[in-house]
Design goal:
Elements: E1 10-21, E2 29-39, E3 48-59, E4 70-81, E5 85-91, E6 94-99, E7 102-109, E8 113-121, E9 126-132, E10 135-140, E11 144-152, E12 155-162, E13 169-177, E14 180-187, E15 191-195, E16 206-209, E17 214-222, E18 232-239, E19 244-247, H1 252-268, H2 277-281, H3 299-302, H4 310-319, H5 324-332
GO cellular component, one term: nucleus
InterPro entries: RSE1/DDB1/CFT1, RSE1/DDB1/CPSF1_C, WD40/YVTN_repeat-like_dom_sf
Pfam family, one: CPSF_A
Length: 338
């Protein structure tokens, strides 16, 4: 339909849809497209950046050439920065953007300019930003994950928690099931880590080695029944090799059955290239005495159960004290894409 061409020396780092406060609508808010860029100026000058706010507007089209409804991008704001804008997101009607190691919260004033209301110095290089209500999740290239709260009266960002270990977090996101909220982060080595706001509870954290680098995540709703409330979320991750994976919450009873099944499959199914699937997912962690991968099931290994013969399936499920039909029902409820 339409597009926007940046300068030849300007590269797009991040793009997302944000809801910002505005006076142009009756509801007081409107969806915009926010873009963060890097402007290269050669080897002798430091790079700069910019933040763009686009609005999708409906225009009158020629009925002989185009459909009845036609849309175009309208540039509302271009805000220059002293460094590259590496990540953007929205929080409570405000725009959050990162410039190197700084986080800025800005308000859209009269749909013409961005006005700063709060800022925070974080790690070394911000790679990812995610928000939920007034909570802000920050991923850093060196200082791993930060959890920050945004306060409006007075305006300020308050650090709630952060990972004490140095890790390169390529992407971070929220993950919830029922009333429990977790933080998911992935690093450049392909390791998925789950954090909870309870550092004294070891069981609330988990690690899983995916062996491929993740660069993008999106949290989508996962409805378990025909109801208006959304009790769970599903996290979809995109990797540099073009593949996708999903992280899905599992009920405790189902988790125990599938965990026993996973152990039986690791012992009975032929291993690819002679590699042990259990050791393949273990993450080296010098800070704890036991691996934290038990809290995450290996869907790739569990999928091998479907291709086994019926007699072999009955034999394996009998060894773990359950039935084949029940295990297949548990697995089929988890493999749906959305």
């Amino acid at each position: 339909m339409d597009g926007y061409e940046f300068a030849s020396n300007e590269l797009v780092n991040t793009l997302t849809c944000v809801s910002l406060e505005t006076t142009s609508t009756e509801s007081g808010s409107k969806n915009f497209i926010a873009v963060g860029t890097t402007i290269n100026r050669g080897e002798d000058l430091a790079v700069k950046g910019a933040t763009y706010i686009f609005e999708v507007v409906e225009v009158v089209s020629d009925p002989n050439w185009t459909p009845k409804r036609w849309y175009k991008l309208k540039l509302r704001v271009r805000d220059d920065a002293k460094g590259p804008v590496t990540a953007v997101c929205g929080i409570n009607g405000y725009l959050v953007s990162s410039m190197g190691q700084k986080i800025f919260v800005r308000a859209l004033d009269l749909d013409e300019r961005l006005v700063g209301v709060a800022f925070l110095d974080v790690g070394v290089y911000v790679t990812s930003l995610r928000s939920m209500k007034n909570l802000l999740l920050i991923g850093d290239a060196v200082k791993s994950v930060w959890l920050v709260a945004f306060q409006e009266d007075p305006y300020k960002l308050v650090t709630l928690a952060k990972d004490v270990r140095k890790r390169h977090a390529t992407t971070v996101d929220f993950f919830f099931a029922g009333g429990d909220l977790a933080i998911a982060s992935e690093d450049e080595e392909g390791v998925l880590r789950l954090f909870a706001y309870d550092p004294s509870d070891l069981e609330s954290r988990g690690e899983f080695h995916g062996h491929k680098e993740c660069r993008s995540t999106i949290m989508i709703a996962r409805r378990t029944k025909d109801e208006q409330l959304i009790p769970q979320a599903k996290l979809v991750s995109g990797f540099t090799d073009g593949s996708l994976s999903t992280l899905t919450p599992v009920d405790e009873a189902v988790f125990k059955r599938l965990q026993l099944l996973q152990g039986q499959l690791a012992r009975n199914v032929q291993h690819t290239a002679g590699l042990n699937p259990k050791a393949h997912r273990i993450v080296r962690n010098d800070a704890v005495s036991k691996p934290l991968s038990k809290n995450v099931l290996d869907g790739q290994l569990l999928s091998e159960f479907q291709v086994l013969g019926i007699s072999r399936q009955n034999e394996i499920t009998r060894q773990i004290g359950t039935e084949r039909a029940l295990v297949l029902h548990d697995w089929s409820s988890l493999i749906v894409p959305w």
